[in-house]
Structure formats: structure tokens, C-alpha cells
Amino acid sequence: MSNSALTSQYQPQEIEPAQQQKWEQQNRYQVNNAASDKPSRYLLSMFPYPSGKLHMGHVRNYTISDVLSRYYRLKGYEVLQPMGWDAFGMPAENAAIANAVAPAAWTFSNIDNMRAQLKSLGLSIDWSREFATCTPEYYKWEQWLFVQLFKKGLVYKKLSTVNWDPVDNTVLANEQVVDGRGWRSGALIEKREIPMYYFNITAYADELLNDLDKLEGHWPQQVITMQRNWIGRSEGMEIHFPYTLNGEEKTLDVFTTRPDTLMGVTYVSVAAEHPLAKHAAATNPALQSFIEACKKGSVAEADLAKAEKMGMDTGLTVTHPLTGEQVPVWVANYVLMSYGSGAVMAVPAHDERDFEFANKYQLPIKQVIDLKEPHKQGQQFDATTWQDWYGDKQNGVAINSGELDGLNFKQAFDNILTQLEPKGLGKKTINYRLRDWGVSRQRYWGCPIPVINCADCGTVPVPENQLPVVLPLDVVPDGRGNPLNNLTSFTDVNCPCCGKPAKRETDTFDTFVESSWYYARFASPNYTDGMINKVAADKWLPVDQYVGGVEHAVLHLLYARFFHKLMRDEGLVQGDEPFANLLTQGMVLAGTYLRENADGSKSYYFPEEVDIRYNDKGQPIEATLKADGQPVKIGKIEKMSKSKNNGVDPQATIDQYGADTVRLYTMFTAPVDQTLEWIDDGLKGPYNFLKKVWRYTIEHAETLAQQSLTAATLSVSDAQSLSKAAKSLRRKTHDTIGKLDDAFGKNLALNTPVSFLMELSNELTAFDIRSDSDLAVANEALVTLLTLLTMYAPHMAEVLLEELGIDVMTLTYPTVDTSALVQDTITMVVQVNGKIRGQMDVAPNSDSEWLKAEAKQLDSVAKFITGDIVKEIVVPNKLVNIVVKA
Ligand code: ANZ
Ligand code: ZN
């Protein structure tokens, strides 16, 4: 029974912190790893980098998984929703350089701030599982896995090129190189080759590709496609072009997906780094400088595709494997050393890049594919429409190709293979665009790579009983190299093999390593006997629903999928995939206000700095700067970002309206996977909705108290004899229960339920209580509304349910009373010549003839039937229209 302690005013600032404190004291959202009869559900949002401040993207991300978590709890699931920190990475080092504060101190104080902000959102998180990836308790286990993989040969060391800043004596990440210069020193960047560690992800390429089939329908199609393209499987042939060098027989190997065009090869092109190019350059200074120029440019594939085709003849030739003719070898800037074998058999008639190149350097073009399609028959090959001739494996047949003539792609492929394979000049191969994953970073703030370099024994993994290799914390990087290199207490060790003095590796892991397995660690975050406790992993994994930004569609998800398979092969986890379902939430956008400066640059202003006039749709139409009263331009609606000054601070918004309103607003404004355009004014709608529900509940509680009734025991009896209005409210109540269930369970539509709840609330507050049974119906509607609202506005909904004397600990998802959904009468409109003249209450789906007769008998209708009836139209369950001759 309520003893109404609540005021009639909705005050989120009062109730929210109190609720959060209560949940914490009750350990409400803590789950354990013991077996249970309840089904389990693991909901995970991509964990944040502790930058220090929550942004709206976080709010949206975490609210989505929280609403789902609360839904599954109501449905009787045991729900795990954890939170942690992706805590290594460059921003901490940059902050250290700027403010001379140790990265660890900076990171942990940021974590404290962000944890408090997350808690103020009222997320139902099991905080007992929280961890930061920068702690040795966590990264010990990725060092351990690295050592296992090293032993298995799934990790190896290879020379690779890095950006070297010769002034700061440091390796720079690509984003630290601005216009070819170091971001701090301004020095011209050089390329250097240094040894790096690689994870052999290509060994899993086929599995990573094939298992995408299992995710079909559970992940956004776009993400699956991006993963497929990134892995980039190509089936083709490796073809060998023989040549003699200094009396030695050699072959130049090319990878091609179109061996059927072999007879159209007019030259062969190799990458600038190709050994044959180097060989030719030794005696050709012009070629040497061309090769040097090629190396300077960007190595990004996208840039190469855009760059102008450039090349140079090496003067060397190789032998065509079918005709025995000599084919010239060119160096070309569009050939990648890292793909296939770094050499291409050029077929300018049927490949766009070769075509462009051949035209530029006047190399011959030879058509070797014709099309079976009748309209193409006999048409002369036209260089400008070469695309029409290219790539049509289904319809193309070989021409100008000797004995291959008339064969289609498949036939030509097989024919060439049978000719070349016995001579060792060709074999079937599969190539992947995917490269092995280079994980070495020459940075301090990361997980130390657990190896020791010994002059005698080489690369020695740190023995398991010496793990973790702990990162020293009392270090402040200054931007000049990795400070670990100067820390002899860290570097100087004895070789675990021979005992002689050796050097510890100072490179650290790419931070993608930490984020590749955190989801699994959440099952047993404090486990000290291994990477993952198998019992816990079996209970919780895979993640049932993963929620995050589409910007992680390629790398993070690919690496996590790879790690899951590595851990599976270590016997740590079951199943092949880490994330059963994926939801990629849309970005949060906001309007921008700016001025264009004389030099073409733009100054962006915060909305607070601007006076804005809105039209009645809430769109800004005019803005002036408060400081000078002069106009500013209303810019585009863009992703919230620091550079555009259009970020809305979640904390300020929570302080003003309360978390429940912010949660409702972010869920209700747009479908979860689409962009959300933030409009401050928009918060008023959900806020007023909550206020109204609050007021209604307080009044309802008073009514119950006056009659010595309780909400928990009051129930609707004899539902069949209710008034029409009461039946209609009951129908709305039960309809809403079902609709929300569908929205959550089937479509992950989290926006529409809010409108359904608002509709239910409107119908409830408009409902006139005239009897005891009416009161019971209103009570049922209200309890249902509040129960469903616990998902979106958990603080307020729980406080109000308790006010009504309902035990929130045993709350379950309401069940639909299907009998309440049955509509025993419906109201149909009657028109004469299209004008509404009356209405009638009838049984749904009544017979049309009967309806027409009934309609004509209504007094209000009959008096307008003044002439002959020419037509009678019945729209089932809606209207009857009688057309009368004038
Ligand atoms: C002859 C040919 C004829 C080709 C034709 C295409 C069309 P995907 O499908 O992406 O695997 N290629 C091979 N190695 C290369 C390298 N290192 N750098 C740049 N290009 C390279 O691409 C395979 C095709 O890309 C191969 O098939 C080869 O050109 C080229 F009508 O060989 B093709
Ligand atoms: Zn040694």
C-alpha cells in the first residue's frame, strides 16, 4: 500500500541518483557464472576509449543495449551487460606530451569521469565485471596467447616499412605524418625498414570468408559485404614467363584471374620493388630514379588506383608461355608488390588499367575476347568502349587465340591449365587481398610484446611463468622515441634460453589486439588461471547482440572474429563466431553555425554562442552571433564533432532533463540503424510525456488509497461486460504489449515502441473512470504502461511502480490477453454522395447487403436519399456510401 511520499511534481534530478544508488546497493544487474534454469542473453556495446568525456554517440550506443537488456530481463532471461575500457592508445601519449602527465594517470582519471557519466545514464550494467585493458591482469593473457601462437608459427617476424622522423628519432603512425612531415618536429619523413611482428590472419582467410555465410541475416548486409571485400578472395592462375639471366633459367610469375586472355598479353609489368626491376635498374640510372620516385608515393591502394599511370621499359624481355614470343617487361606504378607476385600479364584490350597504360606508352592492344551476344557479333573493337568487351566471363569467347578460339572462360581456363601445368608453367591459385596483421607499434602506451632478443638465440618468447611483461608506469613520453628504449631496468634482461645478457623487445601491440578479445574476457574478467574460464565462456558466449558504430565494420570485427577462432583452436571457447547478431547504430548529427573567413577558412560557433530563430517545424532559419549581433551562416547538419563545435554535451542534457528523457529521446527520434538529427527542442516532447505519466500515477495512487485498494491486487473481472470505452482501453493495453514484443523480439525497432507507449498514455489519461470496473481497467493500463516504460525510463517507471505498491524485483513482461483484442463492435461511417450523414455500431466483417439495408434505415441518412439510388459502396469495416441521382 502506498503512503504517497512522492510529490506531484516530476523531479528527475531527485529520483535518478537515488535509484542508481539503490541498484548499486542491491547489485541488481550483477550476474554470476553458475548454471541456471533461466536462458541467458549477452548484450554488448562496443566498449569506449577513455577520452574523458562521454559523447552522444556513446549515449545512443549504450542506451540501445540497455533497452534491450531490460527487455530480456522482463522476458525472464539472465542478462549480462558488461562495461570496460579500451585503455591503451595514442591519445594518452599525446596528452602526456602536451601536459607532462603520465599516460596511466591520465587514463585512469578519465575512466573515473566516464564511469560516473555512464552511471548517470542509468545503465543496467554488471559493474563487477569492469576492467581496463591497460592493466597487467588483462594484457597478461594476450601476451600468453601471443606466445602460444609464436610456438605454433601463427606469429612471425618480418621487415617492414615505417615512417621515420629523423629529428625526433621516432616512428610515426600514418596520421602523425602531415603533408609528408612529422606532426611535432616538422621534419621530412623518411621510410625505414624495421622488424615487426605479424599475426598470420591469412591462414584463416578462407574460414573468415566462409563463416560470413553463418552471419547472413544476423549482421547488416553492408558489413558482411565489407568484410568479404576486405578479405577479397580471387580465384585464378599463376602463370610463369621464362627468361634467362646471366645464363640462369628463371621465370617471371604473374597472378591472373583471366588466364583466358593469355593470348592478348602484349607486355608484362612489374612493381617498382620487384627484383627484376631492381636488377634492370642496376645498369640503368634513369630507371633507378624512376623506381625511387615510385617508392615515395603513397602505398595506399586507393591512392594508387587514382594516381596517373606511370611506367618505364626495363629493356628486358620474357618468353610467352604459349607462343614462345618475347614480351617486353615494364615497371608500372599501378602494380602492387604486396599482391599476388608483384607482376601482371598486361592485357590492354580487356583490363582498364592496362588499357590506359598501353595508350599512354603506345604499346600494342590485341583483342582476344568476343561476345556471343548477337548485337555484339561482328562489331569492330573500339578502344573507347573497351569496357563493353571486358570481364564478361559468361558470354565471352576467345578470338585471335589460335586453338583457344571459340572457347568460353571456363573452357579456356581449363585448356590453358592442361597445357601449362605439365611444363611447370602454370598452376591454379587463390589470392586474397587480406594481408597478415602487423601488430608491432613503436609506442610506449601499449601492451609489451613478450619477446626477448638474444644475440645468440634470436627471438625468444618470454617463458609463460615470467608473464606478464609489465609495462612500467612511471614514464612520461616526450615524443622523442619510445621511452622504454632508455629504461634499462626494462630492456636489460638475461636470455631465457642461454642466460646471457639480452634485450627485451620495446615495441607494443596495436591496440586492436586488446579490443579483439575483451568480449570473451567479460565472461570471467577476474580469472587468474587462464585467459578465459571455460565454464563462464560456455555460459555466455557468443555475444547474442553486439551494438556499435559502422566505422568498425572492417578491422575490429575482422580481428575479433580471427581471435575467436584462435581462442577456439586453443580450446578456450566454443563456436566459430564471437557475435551472433550485430546492430550498427546510426551517427548522431547536429546543425552547424559558421562564418567563412577572408582566407577561405571557416569558424564554427557553438549553438550557445548564437541566437537562433526557428520555423514552426523546429528548423533554424536565422542566426546571429550573440557577441556582435551580426549574422552567422546556418551550416549543414553534420556528425557531432569537436572541429564543428556542434557536439551536444550529454551530461548537461542529463542535468537539465534527466537521463530518462535523454534515453527516450535518443531511442524515439530515429530508427536505431539510421542517423539521428539532434534538436535540443525535441527533448520537450518525451519530457512532457514523462511528466504527464507521473502526474497521472500520483493521482491514481491517491484514488486507490482512498478506496483502500492496491494496484497489485486490483484486477479486471468479467471483461465481457465492460463499457465500450473500457473495452477499447483494454484493447489498447493488450495491443501495446504485443506490438512492443514484436518490435523488440523481431525487428529491433526501438523507436516505434515509444510512440505506442505515448498512444497508450493518451488513451489512458483521456479515459473517464465511472465505475469500479473502469478503475480496474485503468489500473491495468497504467501498470502495463509503467512496466513497459522500465525499459526506456527505468528510474521514473520503477519509482512509480513502487509508489503503486508493486514489487519491481519480480516484474515480468506482461502477457497479452487475446480476448481483449477481439473487437465486438466497430463504428462504420455512412455517407450519401460522399458526405458523412451518420454512423452505426456493427459487428466487424458484417455482410455487405445487410450493411446497406441498415444504413438506409438510419434517420439521419434516410432524409438525404431524395432521388433514385444509383450505387451503394461498402468499404469493409469502414464505410457505406450511397450514391443518389440528383
Ligand atoms: C590479366 C588480366 C586480364 C587481368 C583481364 C584482369 C583482366 P583481383 O580480381 O583483384 O584479384 N594483378 C595481379 N597482380 C597484381 C598486382 N600485384 N598489382 C596490380 N594488379 C595485379 O585482380 C586480379 C587481376 O589484377 C589479375 O588478373 C591481374 O590482371 C591484376 F582482362 O591478369 B589480370
Ligand atoms: Zn640466448
From TrEMBL:
Query: Known NCBIfam families for this protein?
Result: leuS_bact
Give the record's family classification.
Belongs to the class-I aminoacyl-tRNA synthetase family.
Recorded E.C. number(s)? Answer: 6.1.1.4
Q: What would be an example GO MF term here?
A: aminoacyl-tRNA deacylase activity
Q: What is this protein called?
A: Leucine--tRNA ligase
Chain residues that bind ATP: K642
What class does this enzyme belong to in the EC scheme?
ligase
Q: Does the keyword Nucleotide-binding apply?
A: yes
**Biological processes, Gene Ontology terms:** leucyl-tRNA aminoacylation
Which reaction is this enzyme known to catalyze?
A: tRNA(Leu) + L-leucine + ATP = L-leucyl-tRNA(Leu) + AMP + diphosphate
* Leucyl-tRNA synthetase editing domain location: 228-420
Motif ('HIGH' region) on chain: 48-58
Q: Which residues form the Methionyl/Leucyl tRNA synthetase domain?
A: 46-177
Cellular component aspect of the GO annotation: cytosol
Q: Domain (Aminoacyl-tRNA synthetase class Ia): give its ranges.
A: 638-673
Disordered: where is this region? 1-21
Q: Which UniProt keywords apply?
A: Aminoacyl-tRNA synthetase, ATP-binding, Cytoplasm, Ligase, Nucleotide-binding, Protein biosynthesis
Q: Where does it reside?
A: Cytoplasm
Q: Where is this motif: 'KMSKS' region?
A: 639-643
The Methionyl/Valyl/Leucyl/Isoleucyl-tRNA synthetase anticodon-binding domain sits at 727-847
Which is one Pfam family of this protein? tRNA-synt_1_2
Q: Which InterPro entries match?
A: aa-tRNA-synth_I_CS, aa-tRNA-synth_Ia, Leu-tRNA-ligase, Leu_tRNA-synth_edit, M/V/L/I-tRNA-synth_anticd-bd, Methionyl/Leucyl_tRNA_Synth, Rossmann-like_a/b/a_fold, tRNAsynth_Ia_anticodon-bd
**Principal localisation:** cytoplasm
